[in-house]
Design goal:
Blueprint lengths: L6 H20 L3 H29 L2 E5 L18 E5 L1 H24 L6 H20 L3 H19 L6 H32 L4 H7 L4 H17 L8 H8 L2 H26 L7 H22 L4 H25 L4 H40 L15 H15 L5 H14 L4 H25 L15 H19 L1 H17 L1 H9 L4
Antiparallel strand pairs: 1-2
């Protein structure tokens, strides 16, 4: 047996093993638990990288659970896939890499950040369950299993957001997130039921092959767009985001950013791989574009007035999701027109995917920096911070990198992905890049305010004893800084070897269907 063939299953099995093993390893003490925490996270990230390498070399492939052969998507005599199928292409494998890197960074950061608290065996178990749910959403080729993994991630998130249950704000944030997630999950389940009722199938490729746009399909699409936009934190369904991101421990918030992008990945997959050319009129693309514009502008304007540094960054998350939705919407708008797709649609999709990757890296880093400030200065209130640059030089340096990237300053990676979005959206209407650029200016102003308030100026007397955070917390931040710098220094390589293959895989609906059904469209 070649273990390399079983990478899709291993990427899910390892963090799941980590979740069930955490309470057992916890009995052996703190060091054993921490070693398990790091080992499982590192193995998951390494396996995800190998999976991405395999998808880059071999193209889209499937892995069937419970069959005589892992390659047997359609057993003899069957016209529809009936087993649990994982479907991996360059896009889904890239998402698994992004998520597992964020999970690894959050793990390193949490080792010292969480050591003052009890119940860490449960924390580690929930953390790995959340990682498993996120990776499952990104690798499954089945709508019902997407719902199952979505629920696993949601339930784990509720526990982690309310981990500091002695804080009423944390319990309230978790309860609010639970209500929103339950509604979203219900929408997804209803959409799955509509597909099953129409086509007797829930496999994405099978549904995509048979789909003819009628009233049930339109209803299912509306339910899925609403649910997944809600889960990724788009305006006007973003109300859970500031509370959940602010109240969760910093390492968890870093992972939650990646989990929200798994929902966005689901939206990409539904629009391009299931509906594709059958998506109908331009109503859905324009709906997504409008959601993107609203998210960008409302998110950044709400961020500017915040005093709590984590809430400020949470509102910026809403704003950054808007850029990705804008790229997705414009790409979807051009899907039926080959010339429009060649002129600007494919560039918009590349910009959206590149920004998704950039956003997860620098936003995860910013949340870890916010956690470092709270750890060292015992406050997240900007009015109580000041002059920390000398006391925390490494944290300050990494904040500058992340802030420059999110503001879209050249030559950082955020500049490259935003430029792709500006260029492509201008072809649709000049108003779209204007809103995006105004949002970037306000983002820059917001992070200049944070830098000046928290890191510059004379140090406040109550912060006289503040010193740099411990090494493992710095390592967590450094791992994301390294990725941001790599994407910034090698944008051409990143576009050619990471983003373009992912974008091609996303728009290749026939190839996605062919991998399971054999015949394509």
């Amino acid at each position: 047996m070649n273990w390399y063939d079983h990478l899709p299953a291993l990427v899910l099995a390892v963090p799941l093993l980590g979740a069930f093993g955490a309470p057992v390893l916890g009995l052996s003490g703190r060091y054993a638990r921490n070693a398990w925490f790091v080992l499982i996270s590192a193995c998951t990230a390494a396996l995800a990288l190998l999976l991405w390498q395999k998808a880059s070399m071999n193209g889209v492939f499937v892995y069937v659970l419970g069959a005589e052969s892992w390659k047997l998507a359609l057993p003899s005599g069957m016209s529809l896939p009936i087993r649990i199928i994982l479907e991996v292409d360059s896009f889904s494998a890239l998402m698994a890499v992004i998520g597992s890197i964020a999970s690894f960074a959050g793990t390193l950061f949490s080792l010292r950040f969480m050591e003052r608290f009890s119940g860490l065996d449960k924390f580690v178990a929930l953390y790995f369950l959340l990682t498993t749910g996120m990776l499952g959403m990104e690798l499954t080729g089945d709508l019902f299993n997407f719902f199952v993994f979505l629920e696993i991630a949601s339930v784990a998130s509720f526990g982690l957001v309310a981990f500091w249950r002695d804080r009423p704000e944390a319990v309230e944030a978790s309860f609010k997130y639970m209500l929103i997630s339950t509604v979203g999950a219900l929408f997804v389940l209803l959409a799955v039921g509509l597909f099953y009722g129409r086509y007797n199938a829930v496999n994405m490729a099978a549904v995509g092959q048979m789909l003819h746009l009628g009233l049930p399909e339109k209803a299912a699409l509306a339910l899925l767009v609403a649910a997944l936009a809600m889960k990724c934190g788009s305006v006007p369904m973003h109300m859970w985001t500031p509370d959940a991101y602010a109240e969760a421990p910093a390492g968890v918030t870093c992972l939650l950013v990646a989990v929200s992008q798994a929902s966005l990945y689901g939206l990409f997959r539904v629009c391009f791989s299931i509906y594709g050319m059958s998506i109908g009129s331009s109503v859905v693309p324009w709906t997504i574009i409008v959601l993107g514009l609203l998210s960008m502008f409302i998110g950044v304007t709400m961020a500017v007035i915040q005093k709590d540094v984590k809430r400020l960054m949470a509102y910026h998350s809403v704003s950054q999701v808007g850029y990705i939705l804008l790229g997705l919407g414009v790409g979807l708008l051009a899907l039926k027109d080959a010339k429009a797709m060649a002129d600007y649609g494919f560039t918009a999709i590349q910009g959206g995917i590149f920004h998704l990757m950039n956003y997860t890296m620098y936003k995860g880093l910013l949340f870890l920096v916010a956690g470092a400030l709270a750890y060292a200065a015992k406050s997240r209130n900007l009015n109580e911070l000041g002059g920390l640059a000398h006391a925390m030089p490494h944290t300050t340096f990494m904040f500058i990198i992340a802030a420059a990237a999110i503001a879209g300053l050249p030559p950082f990676n955020g500049f490259v992905s935003k430029l792709l979005i500006y260029e492509s959206t201008f072809a649709v209407h000049p108003f779209l890049p204007v809103v995006a650029m105004v949002t970037s200016v306000l983002t820059l102003a917001s992070f200049v305010k944070v830098f000046q308030t928290a890191f510059l100026g004379p140090r406040r007397s109550r912060l006289a004893e503040v010193e740099e955070v411990p090494g493992t917390m710095l390592l967590g931040m450094f791992s994301l800084t390294l990725v941001v710098l790599g994407l910034s220094l090698f944008p051409t390589w990143s576009m050619a070897h990471i983003i373009e293959p992912a974008a091609k895989a996303l728009v290749d609906q026939a190839g996605y269907i062919r991998a399971v059904m054999g015949g394509g469209l």
